[in-house]
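pasting input
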Amino acid sequence: MIDIRPVANTIGKLVVTLGAAMSLPMLVDYAHDDPNWKSFLESGILCAVIGSLIVFATRSNEKSLNLQQAFLLTNGLWIVLPLFGALPFFLGAPHVGFTDAFFESMSGLSTTGTTAFPSLDTLPKGTHLWRGQLQWLGGLGIIVVAMIFLPVMKVGGMQFFRSEGFDTLGKILPRAFDIARETTLVYVFITVACAVTFIMLGMNGFDAVFHALTTCSTGGFSNYDASFGAYPGAPQLAASFFTILAALPFIRMVQLVRGDAMPLFEDVQVRAFLRWLFYAIAVIVLYRLVWLGAENPFHVMRETVFNVVTLTAGSGFGTGDVTQWGSFPFAILIMMGMIGGCTGSTTCSIKVFRYLVLFKAVRAQIRRMHSPHRVFPVMLEGRPLDREVVGSVMAYFTTFMLSFGLLIVALALTGLHPRTALTGAWATIANIGPIWGPEVSANGAVDQFPTASKWLMVIGMFLGRLEVLSVLVVLHPRFWRQ
Amino acid sequence: MIDIRPVANTIGKLVVTLGAAMSLPMLVDYAHDDPNWKSFLESGILCAVIGSLIVFATRSNEKSLNLQQAFLLTNGLWIVLPLFGALPFFLGAPHVGFTDAFFESMSGLSTTGTTAFPSLDTLPKGTHLWRGQLQWLGGLGIIVVAMIFLPVMKVGGMQFFRSEGFDTLGKILPRAFDIARETTLVYVFITVACAVTFIMLGMNGFDAVFHALTTCSTGGFSNYDASFGAYPGAPQLAASFFTILAALPFIRMVQLVRGDAMPLFEDVQVRAFLRWLFYAIAVIVLYRLVWLGAENPFHVMRETVFNVVTLTAGSGFGTGDVTQWGSFPFAILIMMGMIGGCTGSTTCSIKVFRYLVLFKAVRAQIRRMHSPHRVFPVMLEGRPLDREVVGSVMAYFTTFMLSFGLLIVALALTGLHPRTALTGAWATIANIGPIWGPEVSANGAVDQFPTASKWLMVIGMFLGRLEVLSVLVVLHPRFWRQ
Ligand SMILES: [K+]
Ligand SMILES: [K+]
């Protein structure tokens, strides 16, 4: 039997933390004389009480986690925290049912950014702040999990990054605090810098803080129905810059802050990510200017940079309807969303690192096919990629694609239009956000979707955020029999 | 340098054979007093002359092929033969340009079945017969190539089947004749049985032969604009039956004819294929009857069986518009098309065998993740799957998916609607046939597509038919430097 006490204990502590975080939106609503502040008080008390009970009931002397417990913790975090994070939407504005409240909370903590609320402009400021906080906390959570747990769990080739993290499971917790602290500092610094930049570019204070929270987590929630279209000018370029930062490996930025910039600039993943972004932007800008003869090159460039960056890194803010650009840019944007950002960042999707491994492996395979008697080692960053990493990345890619296909079929079963089913599966399993289809509300919300579709999309966000394989491991019967 | 003489010699002989095959449509048109017979005479003479010149110019004593030559031959066959097969469409009815003629010929020889001709009902019988023959010959070609060359070329895990084929390259040619002869006999027998069945079910002789040629090659060309909708009754069930036969591994049917039925019934690939077909049919029938409340269960069942079977095995005959069944059946049909039939059959797409390997490999990966210190061998059919096969299948799946994505983007670049780009890439790279989208003509033809789209689709058919990797090997610069 797996001892779930240390797992439940950690989750309990984080539930209490989540409750404490609700004091911020409570204060904001109170300061604006909005009676909605009470819902945050109630939710916060519920979190504090239930969380404390869990912590109290699961005390144990065991401080380190074994592999099973690491899997359970990772899965448990993104099931239990969204439950508690949903309370304010349920007890307070916009007073939606359990499905929509949970959907919004999961969309926040998984940094997906699809909203279930059809009218954002009328919501209290506290509710918006809470949505922003959920994304910001979810982004922080995934960086820490990606650096500490995924390499040990060997999820989709993440063991390649083990030497930079932890080698022995017993050492996880003590060193976790060091890494978590430094990463949190970098994350906070980037967020503050983002908010200050937004303010300097003319955003009001609240909008700046809110959008900084959802930009630096590559979450993509907005507090306007027009999404980022409400700030069409320089703020979009600033948001693109900070989205790119948030899509880089945070360990490299920790090294940068320690005074060593080379690891960041020499990282093959970072270089490939920036190169691919540049290509996609250049091709779409040329297409729109030369083929379609769009006028106002500066406007086209800014709009393209913003949309390519936010859809690739998966924040998914919208500015107008990108489908209007034509099939080709739209197809590129959909494909870019399947790439995502760098490993160890807040971004989701398949990620640059895995494509680099896939390309190397396929090239090695092709060489092996025409020269069967020679050995072609697969190398990345000057290090040989062992077969285990390659096999693990390929298993990840396969599982991701099959889950994506199944999710499309399942969403179609709930009655969604094929286009909605396709982009809905894409938006959720790759945690990007925007969905195109006849059932989508004017502000991009899914409130009109059947309940079954919403739950399938919740499953998609959960699978995508936890890199699919970590969930399947826990669903495997043998996992529980050890 | 690679000695291309034996390769060109074989191709030359097949060009002569192709020319000889043109005598059939010539006779048919002559018998119907259609002046179109001359175009087949001209094309046939051209094939005979040029083919003979090639054979004459490339005489050599070398009878066996090395690995490089096997790759060149496989690629060369599906480039040169479509060129010569296109002559009758260019010199005779429907007198289309080079692009459409080559498209139709490639669609035939690759057993894709997408047509470039908007008005099939008005074409001469000889032209139709030639379209049928192209598919039939293409189907025969791929079975032989899949049995003889792909295992030695190690394309996408095909080396798993090597023990059943050939171990030494030097022995390819002598044994190739044995296998090719027996397989051809089985293929001819199935085609004759199919034609006879069609006649007994009320088809006229010509339609029966034509549809037998395109059914047993899982090609899917029709001589009616209404496709198989022209024969709505029992012929559809018969076509479903023969399509399933054509999607089974032909080596198993050779064994069956030799008196040993067990290998066929015990083949895990065959069992999985039939099981998945059954599930898909059952789910769609239930959905249409129970959810949508469709009346006439027998009609629904027949229509569903026919469409699931032809889209999965990739013949892709149409009966009415399956998009009218709703998103869910449509999404399932699209996914089933991504499966295809069994290895060593006339079908294309990813194929059942590779999914079985992928599932096994992903399961082994998941077990390895939660029990890192135990060894989980990957087994299939009671034999261990070595890492090379698993890696090769995964490389195939990755390359197929990436090519599919790139093809969608490229088709969108030519201006096609996103739906057309998506289903057009699907129909061609998986060699299925039907395309849905606003640019498609009433009979499903691509004649209104931009020329660039047609050529991209030709590339898609070529890549799909040759299992993507065999093409990439030849495109690799190092291939030529050996
Ligand atoms: K997002
Ligand atoms: K076909």
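fyi The two ends of chain B are 7 Å apart (CA to CA).
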